[in-house]
Amino acid sequence: MPELPEVAALVADLRERLVGRTIARVDVLVVSALKTFDPPVTALAGRTITDVTRHGKWLDLATDDGLHLLVHLARAGWLRWRSAAPKPTKPGRGPLAARLVLDDGSGFDLTEAGTAKRLAIHLVHDPDEIDAVRTLGLDPMSDAFTAEAFDRILDAAGRARIKGVLRDQRRIAGIGNAYSDEILHAARMSPYKPADMPAADRERLYAAVRTTLAEAVERASGRPASELKSEKREALRVHGRAGSPCPVCGDTIRHVEFVDSTFEYCPTCQTGGRVLADRVRSRLVK
Predict the structure, then answer these.
(1) Which residues pair with 99 in a beta bridge?
(2) N-terminal to C-terminal alpha carbon distance within the chain
(3) Where are the membrane-spanning stretches (predicted)?
(4) 9 and which of 85, 91, 220, 246 could share a cystine (Cβ 3.0–4.6 Å)?
(5) Domain spans in the chain, listed from the N-terminal domain onward
């Protein structure tokens, strides 16, 4: 899933390519991807793109008439830049969900792999019309995300497990499964640790959030969309690396699987050597 660093890089790349350009049309090939109907996407034809920004993991293309095309790539979505005019494509063929075509034929395609179609496209007058955008928590790369603000987030979360708190978009916007694993590894903290932790742990975790994301944003900066997925995979230290040695201590990175998600961690660095139960496999053994 694209998270804050990758979306920030997509924004920078698209802003350079799109601002000042005119939209010829937007084609939606997977009807379920389009979550709004008024205004229709045909209203974008002839409009000029004035800015490209983000809200957490949401992409936001603003136009000169005040419309905003917002895209959430979800778990398996991606954006592919296309420099030439597209060939005609029938709806339902392959992973293509939608495409934006500029007046010279270039533009980008939105794709989604797999069968669980969660990619979301909204066309609105104000991003806050979308509940998931309006209720986003603090952006961890913003000036407002101070140590004091982080303390308030943890206080409000109480005994909730910190892994879930970091991923909760209504608390902190932009962190997903991969970077929450990386942050907790950098902080040497168990994913199951309660949010109401001592001050010293809070300070260590806050520093890990800021540093881990800043480093990821810097690595992704300036890269085209085609390189972002591979760059992310290569840079991750624990997420997606179950069975590999921890780059810090050499212990084997472990894997915990839930019904619809997984996470990875290092027992030596994060749980005092304790191996956490794999909920799915443990249930199958009983």
Answers:
(1) 27, 109
(2) 32
(3) none
(4) 220
(5) 4-134, 147-285
